[in-house]
């Protein structure tokens, strides 16, 4: 048996069907990103450029990671997650080496969606690194993305940031993160769709999703996820007390709503 073999654990993959709302966004990703991967010959026949990554931005908790995972599910690729914060280093050259190693590892695991979270860690963050080091790391990322030195076939890059206005403009050029996609907080109907997905298959009375969706304006997908989990915890506690399974009720949601608040407004207040 080969040493250092990576053990792949098969788990159920989320697809677009698991993402509530965001219908326009899903359509755009299909056309701009998924179809060129699945049928490059059609795009090439018409002389269209293919390649380049998606860049998701928007308030926290509105599905950047979740959607990137679902893209991997749609194209049957692995999902490889890079948190840039975790590779930063105060030692000269170490962050670049970490980044290179990471890409090399991903190149052995193709096809994969390589998700680079917190892209704003490049540029804005001067705590761990000097401006000069920062520049070197951006350059290293450009080298890795361009794939001129290495083969990037089967690597599909998606970046994410909450603060796109801090992003180095070099990262936005064609072939890099050229497709900017805003993931807004869910609207009324989308909140309904997300809530319906999250309670699907759980013991429940008739839940008034219209009402709960109306009460949760400015909630992110993550806020809704927490709300549902809180409500479920009330139903579980009741089930323990009575010794039988008690369905999730509207009352559980009302109680859960007392302690949860929308988290997206703050982002809009600071957005540039
Ligand atoms: P951050 O900026 O904080 O990293 P994010 O935008 O990456 O946040 P996610 O981690 O993708 O947010 O979302 C958090 C959780 O919220 C997900 O695990 C999922 O349960 C839920 N969620 C967010 N958006 C949706 C959605 N459109 N449909 C279903 N669930 C969603």
UniProtKB/TrEMBL annotation:
Keywords for the protein's UniProt record, in alphabetical order: ATP-binding, Nucleotide-binding
Keyword ATP-binding: yes
InterPro entries: AAA+_ATPase, AAA_ATPase_domain, AAA_lid_3, ATPase_AAA_core, ATPase_AAA_CS, P-loop_NTPase
Protein name: SpoVK/Ycf46/Vps4 family AAA+-type ATPase
Family: Belongs to the AAA ATPase family.
UniProt xrefs under PANTHER family: AAA-FAMILY ATPASE, NUCLEAR VALOSIN-CONTAINING PROTEIN-LIKE
Entries under Pfam families matching the protein: AAA, AAA_lid_3
SMART domains documented for this protein: AAA
Gene3D superfamilies reported in the protein's UniProt record: 1.10.8.60, P-loop containing nucleotide triphosphate hydrolases
AAA+ ATPase domain segment(s): 50-187
PROSITE patterns registered for this protein in UniProt: AAA
Domain of life: Bacteria
Keyword S-adenosyl-L-methionine listed: no
